[in-house]
Amino acid sequence: MTPRMLKQTLEEWSREVHVPGDLADRALRRRSRLRLTRFAGAVSCAAVVAAVALLVPLVVVPLFTAEPISQVGGPPVVVPVQPYRQTTPAEDVLADTGNSPPKTMIAAGGVAVSAYYTWRSRTAAGRKVLDRTWYLLDPATKSYEKTEWGWTEVAPGLRWAAVLEKDLPVRRIGIFDMEARQVRAWVPVDHPVGGVAWSPDGTRLLATAYDESPDLDRTSVVERQCPSRVAATPEDPRHPPFQTISTSRTGFYVVDAATATAGDFHAVDPCWTDNSNVRRDFGWSDDGALVREASNVWKRPDAFYDLEGRPHDAPSGYVATESKAGVSPGGTLLAGPDGMPTKVTELSTGEIVGRQQVLQLLAWADDHRLVALGCAGTCGNEFHNGLVLVGVDGENAVPLSEYRKNTQKPEAWEPVLTPR
Amino acid sequence: MDAAEERRFREFVSARAPALMRLAYLLTGGDQHSAEDLLQTALAKVITRWGRLDEPEAYVRQVMYRQQISWWRLAWRQRETSVADVPEHPAGRAGTDEAELRMILRRALARLTPRQRAVLVLRYLEDLPEDQVAQVLGCSVGTVRSTAHRSLARLRTTAPELADLRLSEVIS
């Protein structure tokens, strides 16, 4: 590290800036406003107080305001979001086996625990609602910080996050700078949203809209939202009709993070698919070209929509996965369904290439290792579990986190894994 | 400001906006919106003295430096004490290439306080000697020196890959 490198870095960084074309106009307008307040200040002592009150918001607030400049007549908001490119991380494995919830960064290969939340339920107006407390990774200090957000979703690369304020659903989405630890821009939406998902390249957001909290218990609500139907699939024609739980989900927005703008709202029929969740956030197809609604009903395939919200065929080469990990980064292996022992098969032949003594396969660290949910001791209690790194062959299991005592109890922490 | 002065002001902004925006961007830690706001405020101030300034660009720069520090003093005082809270890191790994190091350095720079970043920009981007840095910021040479020292220490703490960044290397 040399002075030359420091200078080069500063020069290189400064070239990222966007130069607005109307700076002179804005300065002249601002000057007019300042002159007006100063004139008011000269009128009387009482007016001096008023002038200060006016002047301070004019000068100081814009720097720290939560509103993007685009909302007050300025140019489009610009957030320097770059398409995600996976790089080799400095440390291959980072574990925190001494704290539950974790205090320091957990990561293995290409994935990291970018955030986690603890949960508890409360009763509001006679109905239960799930409350989350989010802890967000600070990549610079490699530690987790408690936040006041109602929802967070970290983008691949861990540079940006999308944040929603508490009391979901909400009418604006924050683009949060993980390094500067502040919201760079707010994206207003007309239909309130309760969940967000980053596109695989980390440049766009899919925001799922709801009429009421997606974490409100609706199992006790006696209503038939969707017509009853015999939901059969070619693979399982005898499958009985599935009674879905109603949802307040209304549709989605596609948000461009770089300009902090939401496109049009797209309504989606909640009855198009069977689902037993109230929260039914949309996600992305692997190539980021389509909207995906993950199935949570056994043997039902995921549903796909185009970016206008119209039902769409599954993308070519789509592989129905039965685990969170899915297909390996190299595209040759498939992580098998939950339940110990888990298995990994060769995608082209279905041949089992390895079994693992873990509960769930959560994410691929690379083509040879997976981050998994492992249970403590001899696995007498499946809810006494934690994160482990395990090889495809089931060997070399390494604990990544402390084992949680009971994941069914309030205040248990739930990790969120993100490509780093 | 009459029509002729306004025209000259617009020409000045048109010619110097790229350089001034780059500086504002660095001073605000890479925040586009805050950078625009900082520069607009500085330009609004320069209008009041337009026609009486020999070097309007130098004036704009000085206003931005001081404004940024004073804003930060108002709102972000608590951040200066956060250095001590940063946990220890393992030593930086060997073999990190220069492009990657520059990216790491940029991220670490973004986490400095505005005052710390301003000192580094003045000292190592604008290549000003310590006494001139002190003049621009309106503080003592000793303050410049200690701030530069703390800034580099914080860079090293924030990013262990920069562990070999030494004040002596940079000041010489």
Describe this structure in words.
Chain A is globular, with a radius of gyration of 25 Å. Chain A has helices at residues 3-14, 23-43, 45-59, 61-64; strands at residues 93-94, 107-108, 111-124, 127-138, 143-146, 151-154, 160-164, 170-177, 182-198, 204-210, 249-256, 261-262, 266-267, 283-284, 291-293, 303-305, 311-312, 333-335, 342-346, 352-356, 360-364, 369-375, 385-391, 398-399, 413-419. The longest helix of chain A is centred in the first third of the chain and has 21 residues, at 23-43. Chain A is mainly β and 420 residues long. In chain A, the strands form five sheets. In chain A, strands 6, 7, 8, 9, 10, 11, 12 and 13 form an eight-stranded antiparallel sheet that branches. In chain A, helix 2 runs antiparallel to helix 3 (45-59). Chain A folds into three domains: 27-64; 76-84 and 155-318, no CATH class; 92-111 and 320-420, no CATH class. Chain B has 172 residues and is mainly α. Chain B has two domains: 1-75; 90-172, Orthogonal Bundle (Arc Repressor Mutant, subunit A), CATH 1.10.10.10. In chain B, helix 1 runs antiparallel to helix 2 and helix 2 packs across helix 3. Chain B is elongated. Residues 73-95 and 167-172 of chain B have low confidence and may be disordered.
* H/E series of chain B: HHHHHHHH
Note poorly predicted spans of chain B.
73-95, 167-172
What is the share of helical residues of chain B?
55-70%
Summed over residues and divided by their number, the pLDDT of chain A gives a mean of 82
Number of strands of chain B: 0
Rg on CA atoms of chain B, Å: 18 Å
DSSP strand (E) fraction of chain A?
A: 25-35%
Q: What's the helix count of chain B?
A: 8
End-to-end CA span of chain A: 25 Å
